[in-house]
Design brief:
The complex is a heterodimer of chains A (130) and B (507). The longest helix of chain A has 22 residues. Chain A contains 4 helices and no strands. Chain A has 130 residues and is mainly alpha-helical. Chain B has 507 residues and is an all-alpha fold. Chain B has one domain. Chain B contains 22 helices and 2 strands. In chain B, strands 1-2 form a two-stranded antiparallel ribbon. In chain B, a hairpin with a 6-residue loop joins β1 and β2. In chain B, α1 crosses α15. The longest helix of chain B is centred in the first third of the chain and has 49 residues. The model of chain B has no long low-confidence stretch (mean pLDDT 83). At the A-B interface, α1, α2, α3 and α4 of A face α7, α8, α17, α18 and α19 of B.
Chain lengths: 130, 507
């Protein structure tokens, strides 16, 4: 794939290496090392023996965090982070919604004070005015 | 004499109240980061990197380095009291540290770990003071061929020391090098693999990749029901080890300090490898190897000393040569670069206040950590009582804020999320993500050095054999590859395979 999308990058020559030399050489090495890993596959544990019991947890965390990232700019820091923590606790951890809401808002306000006020980092305002 | 004068200059910087405050802050955060499962020093440093933007370079590096060596102290607390490593270097401490805790000697184990860490950390700083300046002076004569050969040796050493396999490590390093080529080619101005995304023009940042792989990736692979919440609470009066425990820990601390520092200089995840090697060494030299696993004092003292000495040793190549030995030093290097201070041979002469202030702050930082980790251990233990289910949303929030604040870029946050998924996958398939980060960091230096060397030689590879330093470095690289090949074909278990086995059993 890297070779396919590197068409417009000149390889150059050894005395004048171009922008495409390094990516293509490194990709060549990746193909070599990948082939060697596959050759040694017989020594490894079979794929079926991998433990995927955490996959639901991982998928939910990725989905909720992804949604949070998508709305971070439009909604802003306070709303997005409160919702992110709330959803992680309620959907992934099955915690009480009221406690999750209180924890999410409290934690976000603490982070807002720490980063936005104490450390003066610019946080996204979104639809709020502060 | 010159070193003593320089060190006095360093202390005049490090003992300023503002510097002491940032050193303390770094040590405190480092202790917390080391203690809390699911967030290691790399994620901790990366998340807090944007906070240092408003500081000068000396304060920034003092605080960030404090997080690194502070995490080595904090990691032992979780290992001993919970039997889960707060960070990877504390895996070996789990075995005997927790066994000591179950016998009612939790306080003694924590004391030995803290005192061992202090002695080893201080020994590491003394060695750093002695070794780094002459090494930097020697490296001033390095040109592109020497740097290229040194980076090749670094990658091969990393692969050789790896507890997974040489080929897998090199594959990960090559993947990192490939990611490092994304963005504008500084020599020709070509855009590479940026797909018209303006943010990718500057390349992929270290922070989103590191936070994704090590912060988010770890959280994805750690469901809360797998994290135990049973914490052994040591009493303050039980903290002092008895005479026999002190006697049993003295030699392992000394051996761990020397071994750790030597391994720290070598590329790789030195602080992790050093604790494994120290544990193996202590079991080998012990008169009672059967006690290991059942609460042997040496099993705590050796590895804890080794990982602290190694974390200090890793600063030698970073400061003297400008070469990171692992992902943590890579991020620290990036922090210095962001503040306009390039680490490397010229650092000692061009920025003596930064270099010597940083070195002196580590003497002070180790003292602070000793004070933090013994009397306040009861306070820190209470943090471990917070259920992990409530802790990781906080870590995810900090990951998002930390990554976004670097460039105010949402693309960086998406990269972090993608890297989190990649990190989860790599963990499942037993690939170590550390070489990927290292490859990403050294990619620009490596590409520039290689291309400059080839232009200098008019396209002949012989330039690497004609220059003595480059030749020696290439020969060492070849020797390591040959040793690995012999081990592979002989199909026998060498020390790395045994370490990998121990890691798998204990993880």
């Amino acid at each position: 794939m890297v070779f396919a999308i590197s068409g417009d990058l000149p390889f150059g020559s050894l005395s004048a290496p171009g922008a495409g030399m390094m990516p293509k050489v490194v990709t060549g090495f990746m193909i070599l090392f990948g082939a060697l890993v596959m050759m040694g596959a017989a020594r490894s544990a079979p794929l079926a023996s991998l433990d995927w019991s955490d996959r639901n947890h991982a998928a939910l965390v990725v989905l909720i965090t992804g949604a949070g990232v998508a709305v971070y700019r439009p909604l802003g820091f306070l709303i997005t982070m409160s919702l992110l923590v709330f959803l992680l606790l309620v959907v992934v951890e099955r915690r009480n919604a009221l406690i999750a809401a209180a924890y999410g808002i409290g934690l976000t306000l603490f982070a807002y004070w720490l980063f936005g006020k104490a450390l003066r980092s610019p946080l996204e305002q979104g639809i709020l005015w502060f | 004499m010159e070193t003593v004068q320089s060190l006095i200059l360093g202390f005049s910087v490090a003992l300023q109240p503002s510097m002491l405050w940032y050193a303390f802050l770094g040590c405190l955060v480092g202790t917390l980061v080391g203690m809390l499962p699911g967030i290691g020093p790399l994620a901790g440093i990366s998340i807090l990197l944007p906070i240092t933007y408003g500081l000068d370079a000396t304060k920034a590096i003092i605080m960030l380095a404090g997080i690194y060596y502070g995490s080595q102290y904090g990691g032992s607390t979780t290992s001993i009291l919970l039997r889960i490593p707060g960070e990877a270097a504390s895996v070996m401490t789990c075995i005997d540290g927790n066994a000591m805790a179950k016998k009612g000697r939790a306080g003694a184990a924590l004391s030995i770990a803290a005192v061992g860490s202090f002695i080893a950390g201080t020994f590491g700083v003394v060695m750093l003071t002695v070794v780094a300046p002459p090494l930097a002076a020697f490296a001033l004569g390095f040109g592109p061929p020497e740097y290229t050969a040194l980076l090749v040796l670094g990658l091969i050493f990393l692969a050789y020391m790896s507890t997974t396999s040489l080929v897998r490590t090199l594959l990960m390093a090559a993947f990192g090098l490939l990611l490092g080529t994304i963005g504008i080619d500084v020599m020709t101005g070509h855009f590479r693999y940026s797909f018209d995304i303006a943010e990718l023009g500057d390349g992929i940042g270290i922070v989103p990749v590191a936070v994704g792989l090590f912060g988010l990736g770890e959280i994805l692979a750690t469901p809360s029901h797998q994290v135990p919440s049973q914490v052994i609470h040591p009493k303050l009066r039980e903290l002092w080890p008895n005479r026999a425990e002190w006697r049993d820990s003295a030699a392992p601390i000394a051996r761990g300090s020397v071994l750790g520092f030597l391994i720290g200089i070598i590329p790789g995840s030195a602080h992790i490898i050093s604790s494994f090697m120290s544990y193996a060494l202590e079991r080998k030299v012990s008169r009672h190897p059967e006690e290991f696993g059942k609460g042997a004092v040496a099993g705590v003292a050796g590895p804890e000393s080794a990982n602290n000495a190694a974390s200090t040793g890793a600063f030698v190549p970073m400061l003297a040569l400008g070469i990171p030995t692992g992902p943590v030093t890579a991020v620290l290097m990036a922090a210095l670069l962001i503040h306009g201070v390039p680490p490397g041979p010229t650092l000692v002469n061009d920025h003596p206040q930064v270099f010597w202030g940083f070195v002196a702050s580590m003497y002070v930082g180790n003292l602070m950590l000793l004070a933090l980790n013994l009397p306040l251990v009861g306070v820190f233990v209470n943090l471990l009582r917070i259920p992990y289910a409530y802790l990781y949303p906080l870590i995810i929030m900090f990951c998002v804020i930390g990554v976004y604040e670097v460039n105010n870029s949402i693309v960086d946050v998406w990269i972090m999320l993608i890297m989190g998924v990649v990190g989860y996958g790599l963990k499942k398939f037993s690939f170590d993500p550390a070489p990927l980060v290292l490859g990403l960091v050294i990619a620009p230096i490596f590409e520039m050095s290689l291309r400059q060397a080839l232009i200098m030689s008019d396209g002949t590879w012989m330039i690497f054999l004609q220059r003595p330093v480059a030749l020696v470095l290439i020969l060492v690289s070849l020797a390591l590859l040959a040793l690995s090949a012999i081990g592979y074909f002989a199909r026998r278990k060498d020390w790395r395979a045994k370490l990998a086995e121990a890691e798998t059993n204990e993880a």
